[in-house]
């Protein structure tokens, strides 16, 4: 690109980054104190490295002067800062690895936001993304392995590096649907009063929903991946609603979901188990209901202001506390007050994404931004709701807070895309 | 209360206060931004409606008559996906024409399209922009659109 770029001061971002940095620095401090020592530089090093990465991104955006959104990066620093502090005692062995993944993710975010590739390629290669997604599902069905914590066979490993394809699938789905639906938006929004011989069939917009529905079912039936299936279907349905603005479509999707749920409940054992545990986890508190019960006790142990960071006991008795149940640990250590604030930050992140969607310049960019923010929001609702027993528990990660490389990377790429859309670049 | 407990309590309080300060600041920034955006929309709605091209006969583009495309300061028309207005009709070229706003007027320029660009039944010479006004009938290949801006409607009203 030969366009000259002039530096543009990003005051709001600077102010918010300072505020979030203070939190990231204070958060890990109690841990060494509790161990009987003093707070040294080595205890704060991870937080400082993280802050350094965000300062670098801030400077990069300032000097490029393209006017990326100034709120997203501080929100992500806040969430990853809390995540990093938690990981020091929830999973001390993995903390350094998680720091490395987080830094890599911040780099990926900045790369996606400013790299000189033509973002219109995202739209042009829409069927490539769709096929890649379907292949991913297929490969996982055949070659998936259980993750490090056991459970369903959702992981793919490639030369020692394993990742969760359902994470990549999520972003592929959003990009594909944004391209597919923005291309057909007139068709979607059109009110079809008569059914003449040439009235456009609703097939054009029901087709992708059907495909996603099928893929979700396959994931669920073969692998028992309830979380991913629910997430993918919810994303497809909300994007369809966003693109068409027709509540009838959403209602139809919900009816299909209800029917699907009833049928699945009848024939797929894992759905029965999950539903039963949701209704009454205390029926088997030492067996199948163990995780759910422990998560609830952990949340309850926090009370209003929590036990303080580093004082939680969840690491000792709640399996997967650093990944799927990180919200329970947050509720224990920061209490109702802190956990509500963290949830509010997640909500603000999604809201900011929707705000970016509103001011996006092209229909594709608008739908993409709305889809990415909705995906983050839905994912948060599914796992937090599951932890708190509002909905049946399904194991997925909490964006920017859970341990896990693929999750962190994919969330950061979503954020990078949102930042890019916020510059108003033609997409 | 031991020194350790005091330190821990201090760290905990600072953290919670910090979290809520951060939250309040972000909420304030977001709110201010929304207010500003609200004012912007309100003022632009007060002045004029979006300039638009309303479809009269859609050809084989698959779009419905009566739907419309917004016209921005530079709006290209063609079959390729990177045009602002994408019309998938065989009589429309990949890059067919462009509508430009210059000197408070709207100009239409043909890009050397195969089947031509027409204003009110007259074919434009390729590469020579011509002024178009609200209410003009534009034809690209066999697709016909009505160009509408509110500015001229206001002139008529006064």
What would you note in describing this structure?
The complex is a heterodimer of chains A (427) and B (158). Chain A is mainly alpha-helical. Chain A has 18 helices and three strands. Chain A has a three-stranded antiparallel beta sheet. In chain A, strand 1 and strand 2 form a beta hairpin. Chain B contains two helices and eleven strands, in the order αβββββββββββα. In chain B, strand 7 and strand 8 form a beta hairpin. Chain B is elongated and about 90 Å long. The N and C termini of chain B lie far apart (81 Å). The chains are: A mainly alpha (427), B alpha+beta (158). At the A-B interface, helix 1, helix 2, helix 4, helix 6 and helix 16 of A face helix 1 of B.
Work out the number of β strands of chain B: 11
Overall pLDDT score of chain B: 81
- Which structural class do you get from the secondary structure elements of chain A? mainly alpha
- Measure the end-to-end span of chain A: 16 Å
Kindly report how far apart the N and C termini of chain B lie: 81 Å
Order of helices and strands of chain A: HHHHHHHEEEHHHHHHHHHHH
Along the chain, the helix and strand elements of chain B come as HEEEEEEEEEEEH
């Amino acid at each position: 690109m030969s366009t000259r770029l002039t530096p543009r001061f990003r005051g709001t971002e600077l102010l918010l980054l300072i505020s979030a940095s203070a939190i990231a620095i204070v958060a890990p401090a109690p841990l060494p104190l509790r161990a009987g020592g003093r707070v040294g530089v080595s205890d704060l090093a991870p937080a400082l490295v993280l802050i350094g990465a965000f300062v670098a991104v801030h400077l990069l955006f300032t000097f490029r002067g393209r006017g990326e959104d100034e709120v997203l990066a501080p929100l992500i620093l806040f969430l990853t800062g809390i995540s990093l502090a938690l990981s020091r005692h929830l999973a001390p062995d993995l903390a350094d690895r998680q720091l490395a993944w987080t830094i890599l993710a911040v780099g990926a975010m900045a790369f996606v936001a400013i790299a000189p590739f033509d973002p219109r390629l995202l739209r042009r290669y829409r069927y490539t993304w769709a096929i890649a997604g379907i292949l991913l599902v297929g490969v996982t069905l055949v070659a998936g392995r259980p993750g490090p914590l056991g459970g369903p066979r959702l992981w793919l490993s490639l030369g020692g590096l394993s990742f969760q394809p359902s994470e990549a699938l999520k972003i592929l789905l959003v990009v594909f649907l944004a391209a597919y639906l923005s291309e057909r938006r007139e068709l979607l929004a059109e009110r079809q009063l008569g059914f003449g011989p040439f009235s456009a069939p609703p097939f054009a917009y029901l087709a992708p929903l059907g495909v996603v529905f099928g893929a979700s079912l396959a994931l669920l039936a073969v692998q028992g991946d309830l979380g991913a299936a629910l997430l993918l279907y919810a994303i497809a349905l909300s994007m369809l609603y966003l693109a068409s603005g027709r509540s009838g479509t959403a209602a139809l999707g919900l009816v299909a979901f209800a029917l699907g749920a009833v049928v699945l409940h009848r024939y797929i054992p894992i759905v029965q188990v999950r539903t039963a545990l949701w209704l009454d986890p205390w029926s088997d508190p030492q067996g199948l209901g163990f995780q759910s019960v422990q998560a609830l006790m952990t949340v309850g142990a926090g009370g209003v202001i929590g036990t303080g960071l580093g004082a939680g006991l969840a690491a000792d008795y709640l399996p997967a506390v650093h990944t799927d149940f990180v919200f329970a640990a947050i509720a224990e250590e920061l209490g109702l007050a802190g956990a509500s604030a963290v949830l509010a930050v997640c909500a603000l992140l999604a809201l900011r994404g929707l705000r970016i969607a509103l001011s996006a310049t092209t229909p594709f960019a608008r739908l993409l931004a709305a889809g990415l923010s909705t995906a983050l929001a839905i994912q948060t609702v599914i796992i937090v709701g599951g932890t708190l027993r509002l909905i049946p528990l399904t194991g997925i990660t909490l964006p920017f807070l859970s341990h896990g490389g693929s999750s962190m990377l994919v969330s950061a790429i979503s954020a990078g895309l949102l930042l890019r859309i916020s510059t108003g670049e033609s997409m | 209360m031991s020194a350790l407990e005091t330190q821990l309590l201090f760290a905990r309080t600072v953290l919670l206060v910090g979290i809520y300060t951060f939250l309040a600041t972000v909420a304030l920034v977001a709110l201010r931004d929304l207010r500003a955006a609200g004012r912007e929309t309100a003022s632009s709605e007060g002045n004029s409606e979006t300039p638009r091209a309303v479809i009269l006969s859609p050809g084989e583009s698959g779009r419905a008559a009566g739907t419309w495309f917004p016209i921005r300061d530079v709006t290209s028309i063609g079959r390729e996906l990177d045009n602002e207005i994408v019309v998938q009709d065989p009589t429309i070229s990949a890059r067919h024409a462009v509508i430009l706003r210059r000197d408070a007027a709207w100009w239409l320029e043909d890009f050397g399209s195969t089947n031509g660009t027409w204003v009110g039944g007259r074919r434009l010479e390729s590469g020579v922009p011509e002024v178009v006004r609200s209410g003009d009938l534009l034809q690209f290949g066999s697709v016909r659109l009505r160009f509408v801006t509110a500015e001229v409607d206001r002139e008529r009203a006064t």
